[in-house]
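Contributing new complexes? Match this layout with LNRAV4D5.
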Amino acid sequence: MSTTYAGLQSVIWNDGKLDLLDQRLLPEEIVYLPLTTSEDVWEAIRHLKVRGAPAIGISAAYGVVLGSKDEQTIEGWLEQVDKQAEYLATSRPTAVNLFWALDRMKAAAAAIAGKGMSLEDSKAALLTEAIAIQSEDEETNRMIGEHALSLFKNDMGVLTHCNAGGLATAKYGTALAPFYLALERGITLRVYADETRPVLQGARLTAFELQQAGVDVTLICDNMAGMVMSKGWVDAVIVGTDRVAANGDVANKIGTYSVAVLAKAHGIPFYVACPLSTIDLNTPTGAEIPIEERSAEEVTEGFGKRTAPQGVKVFNPAFDVTPNEYVTAIITEKGIVQAPFEENLRKLFE
Ligand SMILES: CSC[C@H]1O[C@H](OP(=O)(O)O)[C@H](O)[C@@H]1O
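Output block (do not edit by hand):
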C-alpha cells in the first residue's frame, strides 16, 4: 500500500502523552484526547474511545509507559510496569491483543532491566518497545491486505461487519486493508458494511473510513445481510477478529456468527483477517474465550435516544464466537490459513 492512504490514526504518541482519537464521537466530530496517565488509557479502552483489538493493545502498551514513567529506581520501575500491565489487563476481556501487548511490555522491561542501563535509558527503551508494537502493526496490516486482496477479483461485492479498519489498528486495518489496496491498484470492489448494532462501528467507523478513502461502500442494517446475499450481490465476506482460538474458532463483534451462518447458507466464502498477535494458541476452543457483556444502556438508549422501555431486561454481549467450520480461511501477515486450523495455525508460530 502506498503512503497516499491518509486515514485517521487511532492513537498518536506525542511528546510524552498519548493523543487518542475519541471514536465515540465519529463520524460527526474528530477529537484527539491527550492522555497522560494509565488511568486515562484504561478508561478510554473500557468506554470504547479507542477500540479494535490491535488499537487496544497499542494503547495499553503506551499506558504501561505512562503508568511507570515517574518511578525513581529501576526496581520500583520494574515493579510498576508489572502493576500497570495487570491494571490495564482489566479494561476489557475479549481482545487477546490487549494481553499480548501487555505481556510483551513486561518481558521487554525485564530484559531492559537486566542490561544495567540508567533508569532514564531504561524508560526510553520501554517506550521504543511500545512504538515498535505500533509500527509493526502498520506493516503487518499491509501484508494482510496483500494476502486478502489475492482472494478478490474486480467488481466483486464484499460484505464486512463492525470495523476492522485503520481505526481499529495502527493503520490500514485488517479486514479493510484489501479495500484500500484494491483502490490503489484500480481494482473495483463493492463493499457492503453492516451498521453493527448496538455501538454502530460499521455505520460510524467503517462507512466513514471507506467513504473518506473513496471506496464504494453501501451501508446496510445488520438484518439486511441475508437479503443482500440472496440477491447475489455478495461474493465474499471478510471480518476482523478479537481472538482466534487454537482450533480456529473466532471471537468477533456480536452478529459475526449470524453473518457466517448466512454466508455458509449462500455458498459465500467467509474470511477472517488478523495478525498473529490475535491468534491465541493458549485458548483451545471458542468456548474458552471470555465474552464481554456491556451495559443495557448501549442497547436501550444508544447515542442518547431511548428506544426501549425503562427497566426492560437486556442481554448485551459485545462479541460472539463463530465455530471454525464456518470459516473458509484466516488471513494473516504470513499468509492464508485454511483447515485443518489446529495444525495450520500452530505452523504459523514454528
Ligand atoms: C481489527 S480488530 C477489530 C474488532 O474489534 C471490534 O470490537 P470493538 O469495536 O468492540 O473493540 C470488532 O470485534 C472488530 O472486528
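Reviewers usually confirm one structural detail per submission. For this one: Residues 11-142 form a domain with the Four Helix Bundle (Hemerythrin (Met), subunit A) fold (CATH 1.20.120.420).
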